[in-house]
Amino acid sequence: MKWMCSLSLAVSLALQPALADVKFGPHPLTPEARDAYVTDLLQQMTLDEKIGQLRLISVGPDNPKEAIRDMIHKGQVGAIFNTVTRQDIRAMQDQVMSLSRLKIPLFFAFDVIHGQRTIFPIPLALASSWDESAIKTVGRISAYEAADDGLNMTWAPMVDVSREPRWGRVSEGFGEDTYLTASMGRWMVESMQGDSAADRYSVMTSVKHFAAYGAVEGGKEYNSVDMSPQRLAQDYLPPYKAALDAGSGGVMVALNSLNGVPASADSWLLKTLLRDDWKFKGITISDHGAIKELIKHGVAKDPQDAVRIALQSGVNMSMSDEYYSQYLPDLVKRGVVSRADLDDAVRHVLNVKYDMGLFNDPYSHLGAKESDPADTNAESRLHRLEARDVARKSMVLLKNRQQTLPLKKSGTIAVIGPLADSQRDIMGSWSAAGRAQQAVTLLQGLKNATAGKATLLYAKGANVTDHKGIQDFLNLYEQAVKVDSRTPQQMIDEAVATAKQADVIVAAVGEAQGMAHEASSRSDITVPPSQQALLAALKATGKPLVIVLMNGRPLALVKEDQQADALLETWFSGTEGGNAIADVLFGDYNPSGKLPMSFPREVGQIPVYYNHLPTGRPYNPEKPNKYTSHYFDTANGPLYPFGYGLSYTSFKVSPVTLSAKTLTGNGKLEASVTVTNTGDREGATVVQMYLNDPVATLSRPVQELKGFQRIMLKKGESQTVRFPIDRAALTFWNARMQQVVEPGEFNVMIGLDAVRTEQATFTYR
Ligand code: NOJ
């Protein structure tokens, strides 16, 4: 009963506000102490209490607060998600302490994906920064604000590699590349969990969605995935592994099936790979309702079957799914599910609670009651400076004809477009507990930057979309998109009249945030027709046209690329988005972002990703040949390649120098280039290193990112950038699923995007 004594002491102290600073304990946060503690606790638990620990519940119409109070009383709930204020969280933890028999603390989770109260750019934008310190700032502040709201778990990072711009959830991930995604995921975990998930201002992460959700067929949401074991191991699994190696305490199981097996029924994935091979010790959590869905997937015949399969396959906690509580008791009593399997799942839940420090202090992430914020969205709780800095680092300059940008803070600027003054859209999807009313729109940002210096004119110009069905889809749960009562022509006329009075047009177009979200796959990834009509009319004025894109996926932008004098990809840039865009447009910040996904010319080219395999008949645009691999009705290759992004200055990359011509065994070799800022202002860029294995027993990708460095150079300055290359960078999964390096020649390519690179060759022996 050792833990009970210290816990009741902790509780009695924690419930006395004056003593809330007391450090409860004294359980050391070591695996050995945890095992002993959890083993002891498990022995005291009834069957129902054990099953209760596996349930993750969200307060809502199905589970009102009173019902949850009752569940807490009976020990029927293990954790809560979607409750985001300290008052509400404290109330539930108080109920655990006062009503439940064993007083096992709840943990509290939320989708903190790109910020909690302060909203940072969407993850795809964060990936465009290629910047470790920016990502870690986002991770630290998100965790701080989440923990300051009493949360101790986040459903992040999402590291689903995706080559599918039709899939709405590419907005939530870090793009098409394995190495970049793995780096981002690792940095997120490190910065959100900090030194320990038990620290007051850390939260535990739950990497998702395991596995390969980003490869859903046709980019259609919740669809199935079918891929070779080699591709899975080589391209899709490493980011999850990187997040786990960084210590992520949780894994969220994907909704999709992989090679016919739904992830929630995949014991190879959740046990053999995750537990046996990768030695994962934390919890696995089902995605929303996933256990029930095993029936619709066609692998379980009824609810009992679904529960048995999920638990035996390694799904520990069940999210918003009453099946575990309804069917597990009987299955265990009848011996269909063994007590050992049940205990194993419960042990993982208790382990993470221990790691969160909840058995030292159930209120570890709540602080003193008197310090609860009166206004959870108080301005003082936001981190605007950091959000602005990260947002401007995430923007990608796609085109800048005759140095249209930066703009001058003088004259008259026409700010036009349905996204120019939309607070809701600039926040992006999954904007956690952030409030749109606190977001700075592009119009507001430009006003802030030009106050007293330039004249700003504004016209909405178009609805995001005039398609009634899509408007209804976007407004299904909230009035997310306001539809103007004027006709499209009236809006365009007003915009054109406004533009004619200006020296330059800044047009903000793209997607509503709800178009790039969960359950928002698109079959057409162009700028919606209402906005295309607006752009055509603006172009016809003959005024310089700066297109500011807001969107959550690569779009097909051939027309906009032709129309624009300058084109800036700003993604959904968050609470400080408008100020950050203004910084870039006026040159107060020199853009440095690089695309984390290739931008196709048109949807029919998808998938178009940079690290594809060679074919026997490669297409050469210089010498076109009918019987080669290409589309005959479009230009081939992406419009903007992976890694691409311009600056207001220019950079030159020298030929590659190798420290040796041969790399042997476990040795190291260094490839370097000298990068010179040849323009007339300071700027940052991202130097990227790709490798290629031209002859192997399996076709290997034409190039694969294996290193990158973001550097800042003053005007005229040069820097030598060095990339170490070792055996690990050359490995691949062969036909027999062995991870090998095959001796021979390798090509190293270094450049400022995936296409324009300098190349050298070395030998591995
Ligand atoms: C379903 C989504 O797939 C998942 O990513 C999210 O974390 C949960 N819902 C909880 O909101």
In terms of per-residue confidence, which ranges show pLDDT below 50 for 5 or more consecutive residues? Answer: 1-24
The CATH architecture of the domain at 382-596 can be named as 3-Layer(aba) Sandwich
Tertiary shape: globular
In what range is the share of β-strand residues? 15-25%
Structural summary, described in words:
With 765 residues, the protein is of the alpha/beta class. Among the domains are: 382-596, Glycoside hydrolase family 3 C-terminal domain (Rossmann fold, 3-Layer(aba) Sandwich); 651-764, Immunoglobulins (Immunoglobulin-like). 32% of the residues lie in helices and 17% in strands. It has 24 helices and 27 strands. The strands form 6 sheets. It has an 8-stranded parallel beta sheet. It has a 6-stranded mixed beta sheet with strand order 11-16-15-14-12-13, sandwiched between helices. Helix 20 (488-500) packs parallel to helix 21 (529-539). It is globular. It binds 1-deoxynojirimycin (NOJ). Residues 111, 155, 208, 287-288, 518 line the site of 1-deoxynojirimycin.
List the keywords.
globular; about 30% helix; disordered N terminus; Immunoglobulin-like; binds 1-deoxynojirimycin; alpha/beta; 27 strands; Rossmann fold; six-stranded mixed sheet; about 775 residues; 24 helices
Task: State the gist of this model.
The protein has 765 residues and is an alpha/beta fold.
SSE order and pairing:
Elements: H1 2-14, H2 31-44, H3 47-53, E1 55-58, H4 65-73, E2 79-81, H5 86-99, E3 107-110, H6 123-129, H7 132-148, E4 153-154, H8 178-193, E5 204-210, H9 229-236, H10 238-245, E6 250-253, E7 257-258, E8 261-262, H11 267-277, E9 283-285, H12 293-297, H13 303-313, E10 318-319, H14 323-333, H15 339-355, H16 384-393, E11 396-400, E12 412-416, H17 423-426, H18 442-450, E13 455-459, H19 468-474, H20 488-500, E14 504-510, H21 529-539, E15 545-550, H22 558-563, E16 566-569, H23 577-585, E17 651-653, E18 657-658, E19 662-663, E20 668-677, E21 683-692, E22 704-713, E23 718-726, H24 727-730, E24 732-733, E25 739-740, E26 744-751, E27 757-764
Parallel strand pairs: 1-2, 1-10, 2-3, 3-4, 4-5, 5-6, 6-9, 12-13, 12-14, 14-15, 15-16, 19-27
Antiparallel strand pairs: 7-8, 11-16, 17-20, 18-20, 20-23, 21-22, 21-26, 24-25, 26-27
Helix pairs in contact: 2-15, 3-14, 4-5, 7-8, 7-16, 8-10, 13-14, 16-23, 18-23, 20-21
The chain binds 1-deoxynojirimycin.
